[in-house]
Amino acid sequence: MTATPPPRHKLSPALRDLLALGRHDGDLDRVRNQVERVRGCTRPVQLTGYSATLDAETGEPLHVFTTLDEPTGRLLIPCGNRRASRCPSCSRLYAADTFHLIRAGLTGGKGTTEAVRSHPRVFATLTAPSFGPVHNRPATPSGRRLPCRCGSHHREDDPALGTPVHPPTYDYAGAVLWNAHASALWARFTTYLRRELAALLGLTQKELRTVLRVSFAKVAEYQKRGLVHFHAVIRLDGPDGSGTHPPAGATADVLTCALRRARERVSLILDSDVLGPRELCWGEQLDVREIAAFAAGSDLTDEAVAAYIAKYATKGAEDAGALDAPLTCGSCKGTGDRHGTGCAHCDGTGYHQDPARLPLAQHARQMVRTAWDLGALTELAHLKLRKWAHMLGFRGHFSTKSRRYSTTLGALRDTRRAWRADQSRARLGLADRDESTLVLESAWTFHGTGYTPGERLLAETVRQQQALALQLKHEGAEGR
């Protein structure tokens, strides 16, 4: 006896969508293949159009793909978002690229010579200054835990960690402004670093450029108190980059000394009629450690440093309890005004979500509010703080590198794109054809973003499978 299918109104939209696709042979498999190809991307881009591979001499079409033949009538491509909170699958790929970029600058490869292993290299962490005492877990040099300023011994997972001991006196404006100028402080730091190196080596700055080059790669990380700090790999090269050695006197100890001197010299004066003059500088905490050679038995090896930096390249302010999306209204760009009249979309507030109603901890909410309020000041308009309020004022790139540190993310993507093109030609039986004898013709139109309910269910399954595979991989590595 055939079972009676459940009434239509009792099926979820996702199941109805999948059942509709399953009525035709192969349709569900083709949809699943598209979702797997974008690795379960959280919000893929939808395109419509075609792509044709033609014979360069005759113009004969050797293969044609058109979205008209697809069950859903469009093609899905990954969103490419680097944030783990927005798209786990795309951020995982970004982290992998960052890992290879950093590692290439430490061990060679990807166009960088292996000689960099013998160059002076350090891993440095620069922090923000204090804007008021916060709850923490202090300890003695021997590791014995001391009470916090509030008198308590906080647990490692205590949500109070990083929040002000006395919020009314905490300098929220200073904290937001420091975040907003953190990238400028880094730029000044690299300038002073070169000056200090020249002084320590007994050279003029012009002479230094002829014998030495400073290469670096850094990533920003949010502390629990909502302020960014920078982790950086800093390397000394010869004048032509990684392929040449620095002078004999340019050692890791000299680099460390120059780093400490440069940190002390960097400052930025901010003149403000409303807030008064402020001096922005680095915090007192500066951690500098020499990077050991690959597999040298140290916990600070090339591989460990690359993995550490890649981990934070996909993080954002959400790790400090803030937001991962802008607050500004899309219509008025946060001004609350359109064409001389109040914005109807946000009722003149400038934001599409009221910060007071967002699920934020009090400290993060106050940082967001402060950034938003400072963004209304004409003298600070150039900082665009309302646009970056969700980032607690920080408006720089999370991961950056000097020009000749190693390869680039673009080069890594180009290599992956070329590999996929080779795989595609092999599937089409065109692997033996010279690329110069083929012409690719295509036309694509943006259709939208996201999934249908059925695709969303398939994407969740793909992401779960990826997470399980990653977990098993890590467990296998730990067991070896």
From TrEMBL:
Pfam families: RepSA. InterPro entries: RepSA (IPR046828). It comes from the Bacteria. This is Replication initiator protein RepSA. It comes from Streptomyces albiaxialis. The lineage of its organism: Bacteria, Bacillati, Actinomycetota, Actinomycetes, Kitasatosporales. The gene is repSA_1.
